[in-house]
Structures are given as C-alpha cells and as structure tokens.
Amino acid sequence: MNKNPIGIFDSGVGGLSIWKDINQLLPNESTIYIADSSNAPYGEKSKKKITELSIKNTELLLAQNCKLIVVACNTATTNSIKKLRETYPIPFIGIEPATKHAAINTKTGKIGILATKGTLASELFLNTSEKYRGDVEIIESIGTGLVTIVESGNLDNAELLLREYLQPMIDKNVDNIVLGCSHYPFLSSLIKRIIPPGVTIIDSGEAVAKQTENILKDSDILNSAKSPGEHLFYTNAKYDILEMFLKKIRAANYAIRSL
Ligand code: DGL
C-alpha cells in the first residue's frame, strides 16, 4: 500500500488521453501530470534534447514523491526510457506504437502507423517493428504539424494534414491504423471521417493503464484506499487549453499549476 501519486508526463496535453484510461482503471490513485507544452513538439527534436527534457520532467515528478512514472509520450519513451530506467530507482511505464497488436489482427496484411518523426526514427521503434511485423507490410506516415494543432486546441484544423498523411495508407488497403502519438487519439473522430468504414484505429491507452496496474500490484505499491484520487496538472502554457482538454476527458478533483 502506497498513497504517493503516480507521475505522468508528456510534451503537452496529448498524454491526457493516457491519463484518462489510467484514471478510469485506477480511480483511487492520485496523479501528478506534467504538460511540457512550451517544448512541444518533442518529435522534431534530437534524441539528446528529448532525453534532457524527459530527465527534467522526471526530476520534477520525483521531487513530488511520485512512486511510479508513466512516460505518456511515444517520442519520449522510444528515445529516452532506457536512460530513465538506468538512472532512477522507481518503475517507469512507457508507451510505444502498438505495432504488435495491429500486426496480429490484420486480415489484409497491411497496417498503417502514424507517429512523430522522432518515434519512427528511433532504434526502439525499429527493433519492435522488426520483431513483430512478420510478413505484414507497414505503411508509416510522419504526422508533422499535428501535435502543434492539438496543442492549439483547434482540432478541426488537422483535417487537411490528416487527409494527406492517411491517404497512402488508404491506397494500400490497410485495415488497422496505429496512432503512435498520444496526441492523436484527440483526432480520432476526424480520422474516422477520413478512413473507410471497417478500418480499426488502435491506440495504446488501455494497454498502458493495464500495465500500470500490473506493475503497481507486482511492486506492492497500489493505493487500496476507497476514496477517489486527487490530481495535479502542471503546464508551462496557457491554462485554458489544458482546461478544455480536462473537460473533454471529464477529469474531476483536480487543480492546475504553472510549471
Ligand atoms: N505525445 C507525444 C508522442 O506521443 C507527442 C510528441 C511531440 O511532442 O512531438 O509522441
């Protein structure tokens, strides 16, 4: 039993799509979330810079006694989770594009992966894809500009870019599209309007929440209190965008602070 909060960070509001699934599965856990929006997008930065930012976020969360950290960002996970695990003594949960899940479920033998440049170029992503792709053809698209649009809160502005990035996947007859960036689930309803019916959209939120529960149990640090958790959201951008997303995911019992 450990009542300390779970720490979660992302390059901005995207990781709230992961926070939502964690909170749904583990409503009694308290959380501290860092939205490093002023440094978004991470996906256009070097591995060195992404690792520096991930270390900074981790240290802020550790200073607040977090018992476990969820790296709710594919780009930060694929570029820096190894370093974080080597450096700090607490458990880290990462998020990676769900290539395996899509490769197992495809009937057409073609899957699409939409992710940032930083994720698609990372060694961890390349190794995972190599391991699980088998005979499956993977059509990758870099979602340049999408994170910035999500961070602006004007989600409808993403339509033209999404049409451009998804068309090569549609042309190849993919039947599973992996959202390899935690910002992209906020674009799901737009994506559904663009892709043919029957194409499955896969994100990693539920899997990350389940993994978080497993590690809390295995490490004996689950909060078994009956009362709902308390939540703190830090941002280094405007509060109103963060609040808009917190409403979208129906967050409750929270406070917002400046980073
Ligand atoms: N949410 C981050 C991810 O999952 C976005 C990366 C970025 O800031 O470019 O990759």
Provide a descriptive summary of the structure in words:
The protein is an alpha/beta fold and 259 residues long. It has 11 helices and 10 strands. The strands form 2 sheets. Strands 4-3-1-2-9-10 form a 6-stranded parallel beta sheet, sandwiched between helices. Helix 11 (239-248) links the parallel strand 9 and strand 10. Helix 1 crosses helix 10. The relative contact order is 0.21. The model has no long low-confidence stretch (mean pLDDT 97). Bound molecules: D-glutamic acid. Residues 10-11, 14, 40-43, 73-75, 116, 119, 147, 181-183 line the site of D-glutamic acid. D-glutamic acid binds at residues 10-11, 14, 40-43, 73-75, 116, 119, 147, 181-183.
| SS-derived structural category | alpha/beta
Number of alpha- plus pi-helical segments: 11
Looking at the structure, the CATH topology of the largest domain is Rossmann fold
Rg is: 18 Å
Strand order of the largest sheet: 4-3-1-2-9-10
Report the biggest beta sheet as strand number plus sense, adding barrel if it closes.
Answer: 6 strands, parallel
* SSE order, one letter for each helix or strand: EHEHEHEHEHHEHHEHEHEHE
Could you estimate the helical fraction of the residues in percent? 40-55%
Number of strands: 10
- What ligand molecules are bound, each kind once? D-glutamic acid
Please give the domain count: 2
- What is the average per-residue confidence, as pLDDT, rounded to a whole number? 97
- Spatial gap, N to C terminus: 29 Å
- How does CATH name the architecture of the largest domain? 3-Layer(aba) Sandwich
Oligomer state equals: single chain
Question: Ranges with pLDDT <50 over ≥5 residues?
Answer: none
Residues in β-strands, percent: 15-25%
CATH class of the largest domain: Alpha Beta
